[in-house]
Each structure stands twice: as C-alpha cells, then as structure tokens.
Amino acid sequence: MTVERKWSGRSAWLAAVGIAVPLLGVVDAVGPQPFAAAGFAVNLTVLGVAGGRALLGQAGLSRVERATVALAVPIGTLVLGTVAAAALHFQLDRRVWAVLAALTAEAAIIALLWRGQPGGPGHPLRWPILPPGRHGRMLWGGLLAAAGVILAAAVTLSVWTAIRQAYPAFSALSAIRVGPGQHSVQIELTSEEPAPASFIVTVRVGRARPEPVTLRLASGSTWRKTVLAPRSSAVRVIAYRGTTPRTPYRKVYLAPQAS
Amino acid sequence: MNPDTAPIGWPTAVISTRQDRPSAQRAAGLHAAGRDHGHPAAFPLVVLLSSLGTLAVAAAYAAGRAGWPYLTALYWPGQLLVYVPIALRAYSSRLARPAEGFALVLLLFVQQTLVFRLYSPLELKFPDELQHWRGTLNVVHSGTLDQANYSLPVAVHYPGLEALGGAVSASTGLSVTATAFIVAALLHLLLAGGLYALCLRISADWRMATLACVIYAANPHYLFFDAMYIYQGLALPFLVLLLWAMRLWRSPDSGGPLASAAAPGGAAGRWIVVLMAIGVVTVSHHITSFVLIAALAGLAVAGACQPRPDRDLRPLVVWLLATSAVVAWALLVARDVGSYLAPTLAQLGDSAAGLVHGHAAATGIEAAPLWERLVTVGTLVFLAVLVVRGSRDLWPRRRGEPWALPLIAGALLIFALGPLRLIASDGAELSGRAATFIYIPVAIVAAMTLCRPPRSDPALRRGVGRIAAGAARMAAAAVIVLGGIASGWPPAWDRLPGPYLPAGFERSVDPQGIAAARWALSAFGPGHRWAEDLTGQSLLSAVGDQNPVRGVAVLYDGQGADPAARYLVTHLQIRFLAVDLRDSRQLPASGAYFFADPNAGRYRAPLPRAHLKAIGRVAGVSRIYDSGDIELYDLRGSAYDR
Q1: How far apart are CA B527 and CA B360, in angstroms?
Q2: Which of A3, A33, B334, B583 is the most buried (most CB within 10 A)?
Q3: pLDDT given for residue B281 in this prediction
Q4: More confident residue, B54 or B602
C-alpha cells in the first residue's frame, strides 16, 4: 500500500509537470527573456530527470550515475534533435529548440507515467558527508566559507587584471572603394587611444591637392568620410597624430584600377 | 559469484558491499590504517588548500598580465596545491565515504575549470575555441548547420557542438562567448561524472573510481585542451557514457555491490542510451568516433571470444552499429575528413620513416626547461610501472572477464605515448591528444594497482616508515600532475597570459588583431581569400570569417611579385594579404610564423622588416588598412594577380 500511495502521489505530481511543460515551451518560444531562458532550462531539466528515469529507472543506479544521465540526456537530445531538424531543412531558431525541448520533455514524462515505476530502493551507498555534531559542522562551515572567499578573490583578481591588461594603444586608418562602379572611397579612422586624441587626415585623389580634415576622436569612436574618386585615380590617405601634420601616423593608399 | 563475470578489481576490493561490513573488517582489506570517518575537517581542509592553489595560479596569471615578475613563480606551487591535497585525500586510508570520494572528484573539476578559465576570464582566446565560437555564431545567425566555417572547415560536417551551443545561445539570449563558457564547463562536468560512473561500474569500488578520476585529471590535455569549447569536448563524455551504458549490461550478473539492485527491464532504455551516445559521438568529432570504433572492436572481440554460456554478442552489435554510423557519416556527410587528417597522418609517416633512417624529428619538448622534460619522463615511467604491475596482477586473476583484455591492452598503450612524442614533428601535441583517450584505461589500471591490499609490514605503519610512505605518495602525486601539465597545453612560453607574442596562439590574440579581423568582415563580408601569418589566419578566419590560405610563406620573402608569388596568388585565388610588422621584432613563439612554414623551427632572427614592407611596393597593390603594426593589402589587379 505504501508503494501504491507513493505511486499515485507521484503520478499526480508528474501529471502536473506534464501540463506545465508545454506552457513553459510556449514561454520559451515566444516569451521575453529571461522567462524564455527559464522555460528552456526547466524543460531541459525535466527532460534530463524524467528521461533518465524513464530510460534506466533509478533502482540500481548511484546518484552520480543518475545525475550524469540527467545531464547527458538533454545534451544528447539537443545535439541529435538539432542535427535532425537541420537535415529536415527547419530554420534553426529559438522556436525550434523550444519545441524540441518541450516535446522531448513531455515524451519523457509520458514514458515515466506509462512505465509506472514505483520508487525503488535506490543505491545502497550512503552519501551524507557532513560530520555529526554542532562543532564539527561549524568547523566545516568556517573552512568552506574561507575557501569560498579565496576562490572569489582568485576570480576577482583575474577579472580585474584582465580588464586592466595594458595593450599598446592604436588607431586604425582604412580606405576602400565602394558604391556602384566603385567611384567612391570610404575612409575610416578608428581611435583606440587611451584618451581622446586629435588627428589631421589628408585625402589626396589623383594629382589633386590634399584636403586636410582636423578631428578629435574619443577612445573607441570612428570617423568616416566618403569621397568621390574615379577608379583610374590613385587615392592616398594619411593620418597625422596631433594638430600639426609632421610625421605620418597611419597611411593607406589605393592603386588606380583599370576601368 | 561467478569469477568470470565479477567486476574487474582486486578480490578484496569486490567483496560485497562495504556498508555491509564492519569498519574493522574493511580496514583489514584495502586501507589497513583506515578509520571510519577520518578527521572531520579533512574534506573542507582539502577544499581550503586546493582553493589556495587556485588563488596562487590566479596570482601568477595576474602577474603575467600586469608584469609583476616575482608573483609568476606562484604558478607551479599553485598547481601543486590544487592537485596534491585532493590526490592524497583520494588515496588516504581515512577516506571513508563514497560521497567524499565523489566530492573530491567534483572539487578537482571545479578548481581545474577555474584554473583554465581564469587564464582568459573575459573572452575566448584559445584558437581552437575561437574556431567553434565562429561555427556557433554562424548557426545562430544563419539558422542552419551548413554555413561554411573557414577557420575549421571540417567542423561544419561535425556540427554537434555548434548545434548545442546554438541552441543554448538562441534560447537563453546569452552571447556565444558566455554560452561557450557554460557549455564547456557542463561538458567537462559530464566527463568527470561519466568517468566516475564508468570506473565505478568497472571496479565496483568507489575508492578506485575516485583515484582513477584523480589520476585521469592529470593527463596532459585535461586541464586546458579537454576543458575547452571544442568538438572533442562534446564527443569525449559521450564516448565514456557509451562504455558506461555497455558496462551496465554486465551488472545484473556481476554480483558486485552495484549489481545487486540493478534495474530490471531497462534493456530498451540502455539501448537508447547507447544509440544516443553513438549518435552524438558520430556527429561531433572524427577522432573520437574512430577511437570509439577501436574501443568497441576490442570489447566486441573479447565478448565474442568468451566460452559459452558467457559469450556476449551485444558489444559486437554495438560495434557494428557504431562502425556503420561513423563510416556512413564519413562517406555521406564528412567527406572531407580524409583530406583533413591526411597531412597529420603523412607527417607521422614521414617522421617514423625519418627515425628509421636516423633523423629524429623536432618535437617541441626541447623548448621546455630540463626539469619539465625530466618530470614528463618521470610521469610516463611512473604510470607505466603502475600499469605493468596492475596488468600482471589483473590478467591471471581476471582473464575470464571480457573487459579485462581490452582494459589492459588500452592501458599498455601508454608505452606508445613516449615514442609518439619522439617521432612526430608535432609529437608533444599529438601524444597529448592521444593521452586524452589512453589515460582512461591507464587511470583505471593504475588506480587498481594503487588500491591493491598493502603489504602487511608493520614497520611501514609506524614512525619513519609512515612518514616516508606519506612523502612518497606526495612526491608521486606531484610528479603525476607536474608531468601532465608540463607535457600538455599550453607550452612553457604560453603558460601565463601576458603581452603579445608573434605566432603565440592565445598570446597573440590582442585588440589590434581582433580589430583588423572585424574590419575585414565589415568591409568585405565573409569568405574572401587571404594570405596571412599564423596569428592572422586564426583571427581573420574565426573573428573575421575570412577564408585563409595556408602555405603562403613565399609571399613574405621580400621578392615581391616573383613567379612563385604570382603562381601562388593566381592559383590559390588570393585576394588580400595581411602583414603583421611585429613579426619583424620577435622570433615566433611557436617556432613558425606561418602555417606549413618551410623554416619552422629554424628561425634565428625575426623576419626582416624590409621583406614585410616590400609587399606594399609591388605595382598595383593597395594598402587598405593600417593600424600601426597590422597592414592589410588588396592584391586584386596588382602585379601579383597577373
């Protein structure tokens, strides 16, 4: 009787999950983030836990094995389901994966309900590792908290130094022919200098006199200019750092092309 | 219990369920000096020490980035602190609960994952990861699995990882980089769990499973390469899972602790797990699928050769299914896998032929410091001794067990690692990659050797003997992990993050190179043919989605548009060329400036700057991009292109 009562209670619980899965699938497919992500994650979790139990049962498997299968099943399902969907020429997007996760999770729930496996004895290995007694648990808690602080410090140190890692500053000058017939040249100057910097850019088309442009760029910003230039004309663009054109800082040029 | 179907292990280790025996009886077997619970604070103390190790490694990384020379010395002590306390605890006689054993495995996974990710905590820098980052980005943007991935063309035909990453990224709204971090960690966790489960099923001894996982975690590529977001990272856990699922078949008859409560009526489910694992491995990674076929062949032969009524043809069926799937996939979908692997195989053949004729190949190990080379050899010797001892004891006792012979044969492949390292011109990397698979049986057999009943010498349990034994264990753990890291990835010059290095793989990934690659994509769109150096190839193909041309060193020889250069440009349809002037300031960290560099390993001076600048002076060449160190050229319509 105990098993039957447990089984009926489990069936009701599974049925509730079975009803929730398609709803979560809808949220996953069309809902806003982060609700969609939550729906996706929950359905995959249901798929892993229910699918693992439906496939292998739980009796005779250790918790490690059950957890491993619960992790592997959604991964394997996503991989093979996506490959199958691509082979069937489905456009792979959020909706396809939402349907895949929801359908397979629902199938796992139905399989588990159909199989009707009562709770097994589980694996005989015992897992609790906490020591008995208040003192022992306090010691554990203290040491683990200290370890957590140390790991947090390690992560913080790495992230902090990675953000602040010094790379040589640079600015990039480019010029390419664009437009119909490529009669225009698009010029870009992107500054990755550590601070706002002044530049003078001169553009010379063919034998025409260079046209200087003075500009000031914030770090990470880009200046763009499009000039008309026949394909048969050479184009030379020089960027000078500062406010007076002395030594060329960056230089690009386009060779004349046959018409 | 039928001895032919008992789990592989030492007789004392498979005596019924440990919980059924009093602690004193257990102590008389495997760990004579063991107490039931050990010190109550041992596990958190191990966590604390191991975390200090991670902090020390993080400090060394930080020192590398910030240029603090003294703190870089913390790297090796940190690595030792991460691994050795866990290994010693795993071997300890005081380890009394299976939960703590698996907790140690999980702890090692967490610490090593942190050690790996803290190398570059904000972005993907490893070239192999960048290749799959590009593939995943293509899946998310195009909604198909067949968009060309110029950084790793063969990966388009093994799209398992990109399918998984695309699903997670598109469904959660996470960036592909964040997705790669999470997916790689989950796959690594799956590998740790799967390996523990497999070892548990083979040995029926959680101590042995714990120790085997800890030994495996010291394999050369486990710390970095196997933890990356790469297609092997997906295929490997499913290979292990497949072996585990097959091992379940034997459990009902085994009589071991795990067999007594085996699930009835789960045969169909196990077959589904087996088929799923075969499918995932097949569509995810070529080498792993070939290893899968080889491993299954061994198990199939061993199972079929059993005398009746223990003959088991299920492994043969699984082998036939796996072989059919892998061959069909290679013939129908991944038709380029042969041409992708051919250069490596040819290189191996050439190296072996060269060795026969007395020409040893360059291996890369020479670049490492002497102590690293010694400790690498020490690791191989130590593990080889454990494997030989384990095999010698295992064979006469368990030869009737179908898994015994494949297990021993796989473990003995450790003797191939040393020669592979020596004969191949890229031997260090190849042997490291082979170790990923070979270390599975090696770790199991070595763990069996270490878990064998100790000699009943009372002197070893007291005073100096006990201290010496402890020191020997500590030294062994240190050698195993140091040798693994020293012979794995990254190489010595790349072990810490730091300033730019030419041809230095992850050390060459910097904002200037990434900006140039992004500009190329925005200016021209994907798929244009580029000539570039090693770093340019990695960044332009992965970040810039451009189509790199390999073997282009002749374009950088300062001869301009000579016939050889013109032939290369016209026949390989090279449209653009990238020059990194930093190649003229430093020698290549990896020994070669270019892919298929004819001067690899022979550079005595950096490339002459005049040679790099000569390209821009060829008639008709346009310099379209200049960021100081990086110059991009348009060769269309130039003297190269005629």
Answers
A1: 39
A2: B583
A3: 97
A4: B54
pLDDT tens by residue, B127-169: 999 999 999 999 999 999 999 999 999 999 999 999 999 999 9
Cα Rg, chain A, nearest whole Å: 32
pTM: 0.90
Q: How confident is the model at residue B18 (pLDDT cuts 50, 70, 90)?
A: very low
Residues from chain B contacting residue A142 (CB–CB below 8 Å): 44
* Per-residue pLDDT tens digits for B452-488: 766 656 666 667 777 888 888 888 889 999 988 988 8
Q: Which residues of A touch B44 (CB under 8 A)?
A: 139-140, 142-144, 147
Q: Would you say the ipTM is above 0.85?
A: yes
| DSSP-derived pairing of the beta strands A184-192 and A197-205 | unpaired
Q: Which residue pairs from A99-102 have beta carbons closer than 8 angstroms and sit at least 24 positions apart in sequence?
A: A99/A25, A99/A29, A100/B167, A101/A25, A101/A28, A101/A40, A101/A43, A101/A44, A101/A47, A101/A74, A101/A77, A101/B171, A102/A21, A102/A22, A102/A24, A102/A25, A102/A28, A102/A43
Domains along chain B? Answer: 11-494 (no CATH), 505-641 (3.40.50)
Q: Could you list the beta-strand ranges (E) of B395-464.
A: none
B102 contact residues in A (CB cutoff 8 A): 64
A191 min Cα distance to partner chain B (Å): 10
DSSP A233: S
Q: Which residues of B480-517 are buried (b: 16+ CB within 10 A; e: fewer)?
A: bbbbbbbbbbbbeebbbbbebbbbbbbbbbbebbbbbb
Place of tokens 């200019």: A225
Strands (E), B21-88: none
* Domain assignments of chain A as residue spans, ordered by start: 2-115, 170-254
Contact A28, A101 (CB under 8 A): yes
Q: Is the dihedral of CA B104, B110, B111, B116 positive or negative?
A: positive
Q: Quick check: bond before A118 cis, omega within 30?
A: no
CA distances from B298 to B320, B372, B410 (A): 12, 35, 9
Reading the block at residue B39, the tokens are 């010190």
- Beta-ladder partners of A241: A199
Residue type, B242: L
The helix or strand, by DSSP H or E, that contains position A215, with its residue range, turns out to be: strand A211-217
Which is nearest to B253 in space by CA: B67, B513, B7? Answer: B7
The interface residues of chain A toward chain B in range 209-238, judged by CB-CB distance below 8 A, are none
Superfamily covering domain A170-254: Immunoglobulins (2.60.40.10)
B61 close to A (CB below 8 A) = yes
The burial of A32, by beta-carbon neighbours within 10 Å (0-12 exposed, 13-18 middle, 19 or more buried), is given as: exposed
